[in-house]
Each structure stands twice: as structure tokens, then as C-alpha cells.
Amino acid sequence: MIDAPDALLDHVQFDDDGLVAAIVQDDETDEVLMMAFMNENTLALTLKTGRMTYWSRSREEVWVKGATSGNTQAVRSVRLDCDGDALLFRVTQKGGACHTGHHSCFFRRASNDGWQEDGEMAFDPDEAYG
Q1: 73 burial class (0-12, 13-18, 19+ CB within 10 angstroms)?
Q2: Which residues are registered as beta bridge partners of 77?
Q3: How far apart are the C-alpha atoms of 94 and 75, rounded to whole Å?
Q4: Mean pLDDT of the chain, nearest integer
Q5: Residue 93 to residue 41: CA distance in whole angstroms
Q6: pTM of the prediction?
Q7: Which of its termini does the chain have fewer beta carbons within 10 Å around, N or C?
Q8: Helix (H) and strand (E) counts for the chain?
């Protein structure tokens, strides 16, 4: 995708833990799919390969979106915010983006009765993750 991402990495403001927020949006529908974190290595891998690659804070490891579930994200474009501390990726989403099986991680909306689920299920997480 991008042959020499190092010049781009110099402008990203990673936090004290070496991470930057990555907001992911569906390129076709404009729906916000998820937010995750990247470190310098996973951002460089994403820019080189065009496949969304993240840093898992809970597992403390690199994860390529869809490596286990098959629900991949192909990068269409990347933007950096004005402060340099957040990235916006527009992707082609195959299957669901959320590990719960929902199409988007933002499947709950606020109401007077609390958080109400209204998101679309895209896959069965038990089948995808065992």
C-alpha cells in the first residue's frame, strides 16, 4: 500500500505507552465500526500491507484483524487528526468488525432505559472463536 511509511510515522504522536488511537470507518456506508490501538510497529505493518493490524492492550500482542475470525479489514485510506494523536482508517469490512459478532462495535445506544442494543449481528462469535 505505502512503500515507505517511516516519513508518515514521524508525524504520529504516540502516547506514553507508545500507542495511538485508530478509529475505523466503513468506506462504503460511513458507519464507524470500531476503535482500537496501534503502536509504531502495527501502524507500519498496516501501512505496508493494507490489512488492519492492531496492538492488543489486554493480550499485549499484535493482532491482524480477521486472522482468527475471517472478518478482515482492507485499508482504503488513512487520515491523521490535527494533533497527530488519532488516526482515521476507512476500510472495506468483510463480515463483522466486533468480536461480539455485531457488524459494528457501536451497537448500543443511550436511552432513558439505559443502553439499548440495536446493532446488526454479522456472525456467530462462538463459531468464529471457538
Answers
A1: buried
A2: 90
A3: 12
A4: 94
A5: 22
A6: 0.91
A7: C
A8: 3, 8
